Amino acid sequence: MKKIFLLTTIPALGSLVVINRVEPYIFGLPFVLFWAICWVGLTSLFLIVAAKFDPANREEE
């Protein structure tokens, strides 16, 4: 469990050092804001996929 926690925190904390810039602009947004918005969407997608494949969420037939 600790390995999974590290895998999720390293990109989140480490990316702040790398992407903390105003330029470049992507779709008119500073890169750091674009990065945050992308991860909100990706996290939602990952949670949907995890819920779909989780055996505890399957309906009994």
Overview of this structure, please?
This protein has 2 helices and 2 strands, in the order H-E-E-H. The chain has 61 residues and is mainly alpha-helical. The protein has one domain. It is elongated and about 50 Å long.
Short summary of the structure?
The chain is mostly helical and 61 residues long. The chain has helices at 2-19, 31-53, and strands spanning 25-26, 29-30. A two-stranded antiparallel ribbon has the order 1-2.
Radius of gyration: 16 Å
* Biggest sheet overview: 2 strands, antiparallel
Q: Work out the strand percent.
A: 5-15%
Q: Number of DSSP strands?
A: 2
String of helices and strands = HEEH
Tell me, what's the shape? elongated
- Strand numbers in spatial order across the main sheet: 1-2
The number of domains: 1
Number of helices: 2
Task: Give the overall average pLDDT.
Answer: 77
For the termini, the CA-CA separation is 32 Å
What percentage of residues falls in helices of 4 or more residues? 55-70%
Structural class: mainly alpha
**Unreliable spans:** none
Q: How are the elements arranged and paired?
A:
Layout: H1 2-19, E1 25-26, E2 29-30, H2 31-53
Antiparallel strand pairs: 1-2
Summary tags:
single chain; 61 residues; 7% strand
